[in-house]
Design brief:
The protein is mainly α and about 190 residues long. The chain has one domain. The chain is built from six helices and no strands. The longest helix is centred in the N-terminal third of the chain and has 42 residues.
């Protein structure tokens, strides 16, 4: 029974982790910024730490958004040429792209490890909350590592679809068709 629950939890995390974090960060930023504006302009006071928390939440959302974009295949790329290729050609191009992304994100994961180590040695803290900066560097390290994992997941997924004889990039084709329908309806 516990194994089934654990599997369900892991599937939920795999599917919704980035979205949940992004929603939480957006709520935190929005509430803090709104409260701070009201307090400053209506009551001539404010929450001294709100700007710092909002700033770090925004930065964290950018990095976790990177992993989300990899997972949803929403990174900036040129899809029109690849869509003209046969299934195996799409697979080869997508695999090369994901390999390059994995190398890139792995390199930055390693660079983030050295940054965290340096941050621990130096002991710098944030200006207002006095939180060690290496904690925020650790978040960056986590986000690059997660983007690497998501890139590898996409390669495995593409390999499975290739074995089934389906296009390696079904999501892009569906999105392209939806966008064409959007433009034809006059909405775009």
């Amino acid at each position: 029974m516990e194994v089934v629950v654990l599997i369900k939890v892991l599937k939920w995390i795999d599917e919704y982790f980035e979205e949940a974090i992004l929603v939480i960060l957006l709520i935190v930023m929005s509430v803090l910024m709104f409260l701070n504006v009201v307090l400053r302009y209506v009551f001539s006071s404010g929450i001294i730490w709100a700007d710092e928390v909002s700033r770090y939440s925004f930065v964290f959302s950018a990095f976790i958004g990177l992993s989300y974009c990899v997972k949803k295949r929403r990174l900036m790329r040129m899809d029109s040429l690849r869509m003209l290729l046969p299934f195996k050609g799409q697979f080869i191009v997508e695999t090369i792209t994901n390999l390059l992304l994995t190398v890139f994100f792995s390199y930055y994961t390693y660079a983030a490890i050295t940054t965290v180590e340096r941050g621990i040695r130096v002991g710098s803290k944030t200006e207002i909350l006095r939180i060690h900066l290496w904690i925020f560097y650790l978040i960056v390290l986590f986000c690059f590592a997660l983007a690497s994992v998501r890139s590898i997941q996409k390669m495995v997924c593409d390999l499975k679809t290739l074995k089934k004889g389906e296009p390696a990039y079904k999501e892009a084709q569906a999105a392209l068709k939806a966008a064409e329908g959007w433009e034809e309806s006059g909405a775009g």
